[in-house]
Write a structure and sequence with these properties.
This protein has 51 residues and is mainly α. The chain has two helices and no strands.
Amino acid sequence: MTATTATATAPTRATTRTGGPKEDGPKVLEHVLGWTLVVVLAMLVTQTGLM
């Protein structure tokens, strides 16, 4: 078996993107926006008397 045959028959790993979140995104901004949403939702719940 030659080197070109070995690389041609070796299994290759597919790196297909499925539309999920990218792994190199801004994590800090994501956390800040998440906590902002939590605080706004808590204020809405307490102002409307649901809790």
